[in-house]
Amino acid sequence: MALVNEHFLKLPNNYLFADIAKKVNAFKVMHPKADVISMGIGDVTQPLCPAVIEAMHKAADEMGTAEGFRGYGPEQGYDFLREAILKNDFLPRGIHLDIDEIFVNDGAKSDTGNIQELIRWDNSIGVTDPIYPVYIDSNVMIGRAGTVEDGKWSNVIYMHCNAENGFVPQIPKRRVDVIYLCYPNNPTGMVITREELRKWVNYALHNDALIFYDAAYQAYIQDDSIPHSIYEIRGARKCAIEFHSYSKTAGFTGIRCGYTVVPKDLTAATLTGERIALNPLWYRRQCTKFNGTSYISQRAAEAIYTPEGKQQVKATIDYYMQNAKKMLTTLRSLGYEVYGGENAPYIWMRVPDGNSSWQFFENLLYGANVVCTPGVGFGPAGEGYVRFTAFGSHEKTDEALDRITTWSKK
Ligand code: PLP
């Protein structure tokens, strides 16, 4: 008899964005003429930049020739992309990585989920709350999270981030083996200062803990004092794995490409105290379970590091950040308490009048025909907040803000 992995059955069978879609569809059935604007889902809307399109055309043409055809590529990614990553994402920040420390992937989601295969099932994990749900769900699937009660997993240590503590996660009193950090943060849109990040690196070094650092939104950082990579902090090479994504950096949500950094200095212990390097383990894992990202996607990613590519990608990020600025200004002028949005494409808003985040979601949908994301979908500390994304077009964003203004003044 084949036995199912019962840990899957512990997962809540409601998926946040599916629930939102259901509620929006129900509204549309009742109001077929309503033009609903989504500021909910974190997908980009602006087209790929010309440098990327050109690189993809060129790569496709190459693949159509006997000399240029490529089959399976290296599991870690092509050198041309890994070299461009080292040269552009790290060297200018004084970070010297080896090419074999870079693992190109098909986007950050897979690796942020899969990375937990490297650690034993009984490690404790700590997450900021609210949080990108993949970190917890992937640990639930392997049985590491324990059981759920009141929206919290018994073996997960939650580090609340809310307006009261300035969205700064506090180092937990209980020992934690693995800490997930995501900055700039999804969903709150907040960032971490160098000093605060240093505290986490020091904690990990002194307590033999690991940090899984998700930098998927680093390209949105506007303030130069904010770290783009955890490796800007001394000692992080010995305790941190970092995830990058081209999805929000360059509109690659449909193309699929990103990368993970697993430094060679990084080790974890066996039960007998032997130190094991994680880089070769991850390499082994990737060779077994991953056959590389498509050549065309990797050429597309390489193109964003060319002078034209850099300029074009920045223009799109600036475009979204203009939305974020307008959203912050408008929502603040209406008296709402809003956070984030200055170094990230997300705005985190406290729900007024003590309503629940789902209640506000419904009120906004029915009152202004605008969709936001209920904060509780990102964890217990998200209750009482909603998330707005700045990924819309200027026109849709302006229209949504006008509607929110009219609705709020009623
Ligand atoms: N990490 C965070 C924090 C995200 O918000 C997302 C996507 O929304 C991802 C990772 C995954 O990005 P992708 O798999 O598209 O690279």
TrEMBL record:
Q: Which organism is it from?
A: Prevotella communis
The enzyme's first-digit EC class, named in words, is transferase
- Residues with N6-(pyridoxal phosphate)lysine modification: K248
Q: What's its job?
A: Involved in the synthesis of meso-diaminopimelate (m-DAP or DL-DAP), required for both lysine and peptidoglycan biosynthesis. Catalyzes the direct conversion of tetrahydrodipicolinate to LL-diaminopimelate.
This protein's superkingdom? Bacteria
Domain Aminotransferase class I/classII large: where? 35-404
The family annotation for this protein states: Belongs to the class-I pyridoxal-phosphate-dependent aminotransferase family. LL-diaminopimelate aminotransferase subfamily.
Cofactor section: pyridoxal 5'-phosphate
The protein in question is named LL-diaminopimelate aminotransferase
Keyword Ligase on entry:
no
For this protein, the record's InterPro entries field holds: Aminotransferase_I/II_large, DapL/ALD1, PyrdxlP-dep_Trfase, PyrdxlP-dep_Trfase_major, PyrdxlP-dep_Trfase_small
Which Pfam families does the protein's record reference? Aminotran_1_2 (PF00155)
Q: Where does pyridoxal 5'-phosphate bind?
A: Y72, A108, K109, Y132, N186, Y217, S245, Y246, S247, R256, N291
Pathway noted in the entry: Amino-acid biosynthesis; L-lysine biosynthesis via DAP pathway; LL-2,6-diaminopimelate from (S)-tetrahydrodipicolinate (aminotransferase route): step 1/1
Q: Which reaction does it catalyse?
A: (2S,6S)-2,6-diaminopimelate + 2-oxoglutarate = (S)-2,3,4,5-tetrahydrodipicolinate + L-glutamate + H2O + H(+)
The record's subunit annotation is: Homodimer.
GO MF annotation: an example: L,L-diaminopimelate aminotransferase activity
Q: Which UniProt keywords apply?
A: Aminotransferase, Pyridoxal phosphate, Transferase
GO BP field = lysine biosynthetic process via diaminopimelate, diaminopimelate-aminotransferase pathway
Task: Give the Enzyme Commission number.
Answer: 2.6.1.83
Q: Which residues make up the binding site for substrate?
A: Y15, G42, K109, Y132, N186, N291, R387
